[in-house]
Amino acid sequence: MKVIIVGAGIAGLAIAWRLAQANAQVELFDRGLAGRGATWAAAGMIAPGAELEDESEALAEFARRSRAAWPAFARELEAESGSAIGYSEPGSLVVALDDARARSLEQHAGPDARWLTPAEVRNSEPLVSPGIRGALLIPGDAHVDNRLTAEALRIALVRRNVAIRENTDVRGLLITDNRVRGILTASGAIEGDAVIAASGAWLNALGSAVAELPPVIPVKGQMVAVQVPDGTRVPRHLLWGDDVYLVPRHDRILIGATIEDVGFDTSVSSETCSRLISAAGRIVPSLGEWEVSEMWAGLRPRTPDGAPVLGASTIDGLYVAGGQFRNGILFAPAVADAMQRIVLSFQSVAEIRAFDPLRFNAR
Fold first, then answer.
1. Domain 92-139+218-302 maps to which CATH number in 2.60.40.10, 1.10.287.630, 3.30.9.10, 3.50.50.60?
2. CATH top-level class for 2-84+145-215+304-360?
């Protein structure tokens, strides 16, 4: 069976890897470079405990399933690619900056999360502001270097002889008798037995298939990285405030991220950089004096209800893997496993039923 995947972000790369492991013939296409879109711009958090507090039970359960799959996924990928991907389980500290937030967070303490007093937080993370009112410790939250992960997936696919066609615009789909037969590129038609649309924010740019695909829009996220000064101990945990998160990575701290409905604009601004650093400074005050080492922006794919779209479309042989919004890294193992099964077995997969791409058709 030949499967064409449109989109080489972490979802497309991971799905391609699982399909290739199952001996499917896979060809991967991307409008840019593999892993250099939203995947490159992410922070690499695998943190359902801190990030999915207000989501639906179906989404939270899918996140927990994928979080549980990450350790084995990481080990297997590192073994097959020969490349480290920086997977770690530092846990999250959700910091309370005022008494009202402290009371709210303390209510979430339980078997999977422990409330820490201000003294306990400062003992664990000396850089944290002495004015905090405590923090919720979520030890199960993890982290991976998203850029290294994308590169490791690319290497694993090359070793399995998967063709990766970069800088290739897919202009449409070949469809006859309500069945997909392949894709159309500037170089001509490429035939396949199935097509998976995994093109992130560009999901609705597949020409003739737009009417058959679920609605996805780009949501811009700007981030900034600051350099940790020599001799300063990098924080151990992922740190979360009300409107900002801090991700320690080697000798840098990544600070994110904005949520902007501005179309496909990926520009960055010094004003936004200052706002992010100011927000992060309420958690780690000394950070405001550190050197900025990088600024960037990515486009995250969001559906109208904020949940992913995973499964079959109304066209036979056309599948969708998109709309992961801020959770593309977290969801990658579960998305890859589910899509491999649904494409190769032609059956529904229970854990993605709530994310049926057809759920928007009646609206």
1. 3.30.9.10
2. alpha beta
| DSSP annotation of 260 | B
Q: Provide the token pair at 12.
A: 């497309």
At 287-343, the pLDDT tens digits run: 999 999 999 999 999 999 999 999 999 999 999 999 999 999 999 999 999 999 999
Token readout for 340 is 């491999």
The pLDDT of residue 363 is 45
With tokens 């979430």, the residue in question is 108
Block residue for tokens 């004003």: 271
Q: Which residues contact 188 (CB under 8 A, 6 or more apart)?
A: none
CA distance 125 to 4: 47
Cβ-based burial of 65 (10 A; exposed 0-12, middle 13-18, buried ≥19): middle
Domain locations in the chain as residue ranges:
2-84+145-215+304-360, 92-139+218-302
Nearest residue to 214 (alpha-carbon basis) of 330, 362, 326, 353: 362
Instruction: Return mean pLDDT, the chain.
Output: 95
Task: Return the residue matching tokens 């711009």.
Answer: 41
Two tokens at 267?
């520009």
